[in-house]
Amino acid sequence: MTSPIEDAGYASVEEFASELLDDDRESFGFEEAEAVAEVLGLSAQDVIFELRDYGFRYEGRAAEKRVRGFTTSSNDRWTAYPSHGGSGWEQINGFGGQEG
User: Fold this and answer.
1) Per the structure, how many domains does the chain have?
2) Which of 38, 50, 58, 76 is the most buried if burial means most Cβ atoms within 10 Å?
């Protein structure tokens, strides 16, 4: 399945920029830049820099939102990955053969 950007068949980044201007848009997203880059055989970074030079604002990538639930790991290294030896104070306390 092709995206609308691939169907449009832009010959240059300038054509895509004029399309954004025709739609009265001032910004663009990563998905659009990536699709234009793929059609033109460029890197997405090159497209982003060129569109910024034309005065458009880059919105960046949308962050995937994750909600922590009751059963979600706390990412606590002591509970998630038990070290099975304690903190070591027991061994240090009796160091040299003496307790106390």
Assistant:
1) 1
2) 50
Helices (H), 27-96: 30-40, 44-53, 77-80, 89-93
The total number of residues written for the chain in this structure = 100
Is position 53 within any domain?
yes
Sign of the CA dihedral with 55 first, then 24, 63, and 30 last = negative
- Give a yes or no: residue 42 inside a domain: yes
> In a structure prediction context, what are the per-residue pLDDT tens digits for the chain, which is 100 residues long?
455 555 667 788 999 999 999 999 999 999 999 999 999 999 999 999 999 999 999 998 878 877 766 666 666 655 555 555 555 555 555 555 555 5
Q: Is residue 90 part of a domain?
A: no
Beta bridge partners of 27: 57
